[in-house]
């Protein structure tokens, strides 16, 4: 059977969504479709299918070595049993995630699962991890809705005058929320907004942030899997638009040592199965008992959880006291130094806008692992009917050690190594990750901690700029 006949047969076997993609690819002149996934190092990787074979590849995926999920963000392969040179999985795209790439003419992308050769989920697939967490909540009648709230730094890549690694030089030094910041980044911002909207990511709000060249542009909440998919598309688009304009944009947690760091705060709420009622809202403008128990679960697991939500060595240069990034295991109403912030609901839209903000979260994390782990932690609090205690009403770093102890307010890990120790000791999170995924994640992240410990800050910064 010739290639054309094979493609025709494959197309007949596809579901309607996949057939619509093939039609769009032809009409829009798309020549390459990227099958993307996020790895244990937090890096977005993938392979691309050509138009002539896309009808087959949508269903079967593209072959991929199992070893890639043992690769660090420095492209250093780690020894993990089951992830060596022998063995293959398939990068299988989800047709529902198809988007054109406005910054890459003739290209499109789909977010993908990593599947075994028989089509079953692979035990190290991050996207499957989040799907399983969503299903677990679904069995309790709960539907998670989420949004990442990312910050990024915009500038240009210039050589270091002292001969060190290249640097990110911000495009401006405007003040926080200053009108001048809108103007100085206008051309890039409008290109980014149009690119995101063209991919189905509706803009929530935008403003220039505290750091030089730093911006925050957030998109609207979505159900949990779509929220994580959206964050991958967002990360790619922020950087892709910048590359196209001969600029450099980075979502790294601390891209410039003496400037504010970039977070990706995670907003979350739990709804009923029909998405009709926000179960975090108590009907009186406050947080429900369910919401409080979710907070308690997150706080109980937070020391290990941050190994997944603040997943890089660079993260811990941002995750410090009095940096508006959170550094303690506490919660509070509109307290932006608390690890969990209860967000004030909007007048006239109280139920829909009631949500929690997880502050220790950034874009060096794999969003499927970070969001999935938060869901596991929160559900544990719900199932065990945990109580989060009293809220913290001030910056916790201004309290005495005795006052913090009374409130159960403990310092978060101050390094990736400490966070990994806490994760490895957290049975709930390790059981949720599973043996293969858990072993691979720890191996990859411990290698990164060791590799960067042997290097200076300039090297660390450049490598995180390059990856994120």
């Amino acid at each position: 059977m010739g290639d054309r006949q094979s493609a025709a047969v494959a197309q007949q076997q596809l579901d309607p969504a996949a057939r619509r993609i093939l039609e769009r690819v032809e009409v829009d002149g798309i020549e390459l479709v990227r099958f993307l996934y996020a790895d244990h190092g937090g890096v977005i990787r993938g392979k691309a299918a050509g138009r002539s074979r896309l009808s087959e590849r949508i269903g079967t995926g593209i072959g991929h070595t199992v070893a890639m999920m043992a690769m660090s963000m420095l492209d250093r392969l780690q020894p993990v049993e089951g992830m060596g040179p022998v063995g293959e999985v398939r990068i299988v795209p989800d047709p529902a995630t198809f988007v054109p790439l406005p910054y890459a003419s003739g290209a499109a992308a789909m977010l993908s699962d990593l599947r075994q050769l028989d089509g079953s989920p692979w035990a190290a697939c991050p996207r499957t991890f989040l799907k399983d967490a969503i299903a677990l909540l679904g069995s309790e009648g709960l539907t998670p809705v989420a949004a990442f709230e990312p910050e990024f730094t915009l500038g240009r890549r210039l050589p270091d005058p002292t001969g060190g690694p290249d640097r990110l030089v911000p495009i401006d030094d405007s003040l926080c929320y200053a009108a001048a910041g809108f103007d100085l980044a206008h051309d890039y911002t409008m290109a980014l907004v149009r690119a995101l909207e063209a991919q189905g990511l509706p803009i929530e709000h935008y403003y220039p942030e505290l750091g030089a060249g730093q911006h925050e542009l957030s998109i609207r909440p979505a159900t949990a899997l779509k929220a994580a998919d959206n964050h991958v598309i967002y990360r790619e688009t922020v950087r892709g638009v910048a590359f196209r304009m001969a600029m450099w944009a980075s979502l790294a947690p601390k891209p410039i040592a003496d400037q504010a760091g970039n977070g990706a705060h995670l907003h979350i709420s739990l709804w009923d199965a029909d998405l009709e009622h926000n179960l975090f809202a108590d009907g009186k403008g406050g947080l429900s008992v369910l919401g409080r128990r979710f907070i308690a679960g997150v706080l109980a697991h937070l020391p290990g959880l941050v190994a997944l939500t603040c997943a890089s060595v660079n993260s811990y240069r941002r995750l410090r006291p009095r940096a508006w990034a959170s550094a303690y295991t506490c919660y509070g109403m509109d307290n932006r130094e608390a690890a969990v912030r209860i967000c004030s609901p909007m007048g006239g839209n109280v139920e829909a806008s009631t949500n929690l903000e997880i502050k220790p979260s950034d874009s060096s994390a794999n969003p499927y692992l970070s969001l999935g782990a938060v869901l596991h932690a929160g559900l544990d609090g719900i199932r065990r009917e945990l109580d989060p205690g009293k809220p913290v009403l001030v910056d916790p770093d201004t309290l005495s050690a005795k006052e913090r102890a009374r409130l159960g307010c403990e310092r978060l890990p101050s390094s990736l190594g400490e966070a990994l120790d806490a994760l490895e000791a957290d049975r709930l999170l390790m059981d949720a990750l599973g043996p293969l995924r858990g072993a691979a994640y720890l191996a990859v992240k411990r290698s990164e901690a060791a590799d960067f410990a042997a290097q200076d800050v300039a090297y660390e910064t450049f490598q995180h700029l390059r990856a994120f």
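The domain at 3-116 is CATH 3.10.20.70 (Ubiquitin-like (UB roll)). The chain has a mean pLDDT of 96.
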